[in-house]
Amino acid sequence: SLKQRKILDTVIAVFQTLRIEVNDEMNKLKEGLNLAFDYLKSGGYIGVISFHSIEDRIVKTFFREKTEACKCSKTLPYCICKNESKASEITKKPIVPSMEEINENPRSRSSKLRVVCKL
Questions:
Q1: Segment holding 52, helix H or strand E
Q2: 8-36 pLDDT per residue, tens
Q3: Where residue 16 sits, what CATH number does that domain have?
Q4: Closest by CA position to 48, among listed 33, 61, 26, 34
Q5: Which of 17, 24, 37, 72 is such that its CA lies 20 to 30 A from the CA of 9?
Q6: Which pTM value belongs to this model?
């Protein structure tokens, strides 16, 4: 029934939140992204598949930090930070599964792939 489904969804969400917190998964993701980028040679690619919005936000923010050149305030008339991009975006928007892929593999429905290339 609908009521049972809502209860099950709530229980699943609670246990997922507990697992993420207990395993410190978001900090591990940040650490992994930094390590991967540090070890990557110039011209190398990093592709990350995320399955949850919080993971995707971390990946998106990390990639944006690496691809942005100027970090100055938008209120300044010109750049004073002299920061240079460390990567270029390969995927402007995340690649998401097609309906065919979702039908074949329902677990793929929430996945997003983002890719950058180290300069």
A1: none
A2: 888 888 888 887 788 888 999 999 999 99
A3: 3.40.50.150
A4: 33
A5: 24
A6: 0.81
